[in-house]
């Protein structure tokens, strides 16, 4: 019995000694990049004005692709970067254009972030913005008289961040109000 106790004790001590060793640094630390985004309504944004009896719906993201953090920037892990992009969406809900205000004058590093945003945002799709006109018939029952899909635009802020040898691009929700955005 004493021999069994000694064997179990030695085994337990060996396990504890192994657990107390500091982890070895990995020689192949893989840096990664992520992105986040959230919808914004810039000051002065034009909106569709609905007439009496009109109702809008849609204009909500249906499919979103997260931008890829620029691999060329991971090595020096720059400070966080924000890119505001205006997504111009067709009446069918497809992104026709992605506009970034300072794109023409952007420095080389910022241009990499802008390119990542544009490449991802061009793959987004939205539930089409539909404007319906309702009216009441002679019996007082409401029904759709006319329905029309319309183009729209929405602005999003994309946030790129590098931390601890890795990068992150954060994501947020789209606006909750249908038809929210510029014409």
TrEMBL record:
The keyword Signal applies. Keywords: Signal. Residues 1-22 form the signal peptide. This is Lipoprotein. It comes from the Bacteria.
